[in-house]
Amino acid sequence: MRTMDMTRRQNVLDTRVFLLAPALMAGYGLVRAAGRAMGDYGPGPWWTAAHVLFLAGVLAFVPVLLGLRSPDGVRGGRRAGLRMAAGAGVLGAAVVAVQAVIDLAVGFLAADDQSMSDMFEKVQDVPGVMPAVYTVLPMLFWLGLLALVTLLAFFRRGAVPGWSPLLVPAGIVMMALSLDLLAPGALCIGLGLFPMRRGLTG
Q: Do 88 and 143 form a contact (C-beta atoms < 8 A)?
């Protein structure tokens, strides 16, 4: 009985995190849009609130990635492929989290937009920082998530709706095209991921 109760609690956690992760990312987009609309999206409360949501959203995607790596009924080489994709995604998420922490630190330290810009320039001028934190390694987060969704669409065709592997990349593309599309992009990702929570073994 105790084991069954623990399993039920784990399933509830899985369900919540599959909702929470994209919701936090959408919240980041909405707060960012609100701050920009008010002309006050620089050092201050709007920037801080947006990037706290961003950091929380990225971290919330880690259990999503880890949950998708070991679904019921997938064994052998297929499971190894899922684990590799999840590992890449988690590494990318860690790098994006570092980026969010840098954004928060600069927001706290900068007195105005110009000083914020100067601080970012100094950070990004450090050799290796741009590819490691801003351009190359962060892509592993989205590529890992996309690989997981694509592989699961093939490995669990009966459990994964056909529209899930379409909505997730659509959301990723929207977010990559413009930060102004963060909220609808996160919504697409959330709608695509949510059905995949079923049959996870962790």
A: yes
Q: What is the DSSP letter of 100?
A: H
CA-angle at 96, arms to 146 and 154, nearest 5°:
10
Distance CA 179, CA 173 (A): 11
Question: What is the distance between the alpha carbons of residues 20 and 57, in angstroms, rounded to a whole number?
Answer: 8
Cross-strand partners of 200:
71
Query: Residue 181 has what pLDDT?
Result: 94
Q: Among 26-35, 118-127, 154-163, 181-190, which is the least confidently predicted range?
A: 154-163
Angle at 34 between CA 28 and CA 38, to 5 degrees: 145
Distance of alpha carbon 100 from alpha carbon 115, whole angstroms: 18
**71: β partners:** 200
Judged by DSSP in three states, 200 sits in strand
- Could you report how far apart the first and last alpha carbons of the chain are, in Å? 20
CA 191 to CA 98: how far, in whole Å?
A: 27
Whole-angstrom Cα distance, residue 141 to residue 89? 4
